[in-house]
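Consider the following assembly input.
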Amino acid sequence: MTTRALVRLLAAYVVGLVVVCVVVRAVVSLRVDTQRRGEVVASVWAKGELVARSVVAAPGDHDATLDAAMAATPGATLVHEQVVADGPISTRSELVFALSLVAGKDGVKATRAGVTAYVTPDDLLARQGYDKGRTLPDLSLSIGADVPLVLALLADRLQTSVPEIMSSATIRRIRVERTIAGAPSKPLPTATTLTRDDVRNAALDAGRYLARGVRSDGRFRYFVDAPTNRTLAGYDWPRHAGATYFLAQASAMVDDPLLSSATLRAAGLLRSVIVACGDTPCVGSEEVVEIGSSALATIALAEVARTGLAVEYRRTVADLARFLRAQQRPDGEFMHQYDRTKSSPIDIQFLYFSGEATLALARAAMITGDPADTAAAAKGLAHLVGPAWHFFGSRYYFGEEHWTCQALDDLWERAPDPKALDFCIRWHAQNRLMQFREGDAPFDAEGAFGVTPIITPRLTPAGSRSEAAVATLSAARKAGLPQAELDALDAQLRRSLALVVRQQFRPGPAHLFADPAAVHGAIPGSSVDWQIRIDYPQHAGSAMVRWLQVTPVAN
Amino acid sequence: MPNDSSPRITRAFGVANVVAAAVVVFGVFVALPARWMPIDAGGAIVAALLAASGVGLLTGKAWADRVARAAAFVVLIAGLVFIAALAVTASYLSGIYGPVGRGGAVILTLVAALTVPYLVVLPAAQLVWLGPSRSKAKREAS
């Protein structure tokens, strides 16, 4: 091939590809008719179930079916989902179909034999049908809408089969705007309008959500499906301890017996699962225990003691700190397991535990006043930001670990570590690069962390990274870092906290919940994943409490 | 291979083809987490062609230029199809979600940067170096 022929070929290719890309983008984009609003899908919901549905011309239009359903169903809610734009959708590939619906915003309408049926965002949210399309096990995430669910709903509503829908129905993507008749239209906070009261009330409601779920024996409702209010399987002592820690923080904010008694029950259960690890106590029930449970129990019980809820836990904190110190290697790293049958530590490392143990020792030192705890924490911190994070490319890559920076702040007045502060400042600078700003996604994501709007961001990183960011801000202030650095951290925090406050169920889309009161104050997994594990409100709530503590009242 | 080609250039293309074959094998059969016949079969064919042409060029076989030309054509077409698929996917997702975000743009750019040298630049350069095929050259001469 001659050079000239190759250049011609490649030039034609580039021109053709550009044209194809422009056409594809234009074809699949939603069409907004500015001249007239689209139809309104009016639905009557009660206890998370769809009771009746009709299509009306405009919100407020009456319909006999809807009026009858509202009259016959106590506590029902009339919801209008107005179609504001529509566009084509590819149904040939299930993956492409799944990725063609923006989570929480888009639904579909299908027309067959002159009859049209809708699957609206509320239909999919009520059945948790977003982010269920394709699972990527290696990344522990799912993307796209649940196409079989969408098709089953359409088939049911058009009284036909899924194959018939696929072969003879016209399916289009719709974007809707939801309004609820009679609902108060209070503006939700943004990074710039967020107030201390917003954060305080959100933290207390998150705490009360957790507190309502603490049983008489001290166990939490660990995992809850918000739409159905079902309790899901599973339990985990580190998360139990973390939730207890946040309850203690929330209890200290306000005199509320619901919070304080739940804290004490949860703390009591934690103490009851302390067993012997050689001649020191530890938390766990297996023959081989992991130090994460003991570390987070130490943090929780130290907070219970520090806030005066139960000062008698000081002794337990000192004992658990002794166990953690015994698990520390001379270089500052921790051995993450202990074999109770052999009475010996196992020198193996897992994610998070070293940071948790370091923070636990720093917190314990505040209670015990034991210099050995402070020294062990300082050594652990130096290892975490030194040898433990020293590899080719470590200046450009950071993990999700969010305990180290909290230990940094706890220790700053007793054992300041400028290297750790530099590590945390750099980590948060990278976090800000990954933080969604207004307009970055078609859904509410400002303040969340992620790389693309195709993957709905989780709310838990917004909470956990904020815990670390508050601590970094506090340490940076004590260290006298430039105001620009402090402002950047504060702005990052405000974006994340405002997002969490907006997404918190206070009450959230209550019409889609079987029991809205049961999940009031909860913080879900994401804007479309409404399963609530106890660590979701814990991380966000702890960040809020600490933000209130370190942010001047005038802010 | 071209009659006026220096042995060094021939060797360089031979080594490049062998390396590219190894990269394709690694990318398809090690880096990809699952097996899928269209990609596996395509990867195997491309790797075999590249390896054969590389060995042929390095050992000065008579058939080397024909195999190298075929390998370069196949790889160039595969590369252009792959880049087109990436670009059309990005356009589709952009139509659905709006801008794919800084992260999405970085990922797409990285993928393109990793594939373009092997799947476009190398085969294009090789086709130019090999020049027109002998049969075509004969036709043009007559």
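DSSP finds five helices and no strands in chain B. Ask yourself how this observation constrains the way the partners meet.
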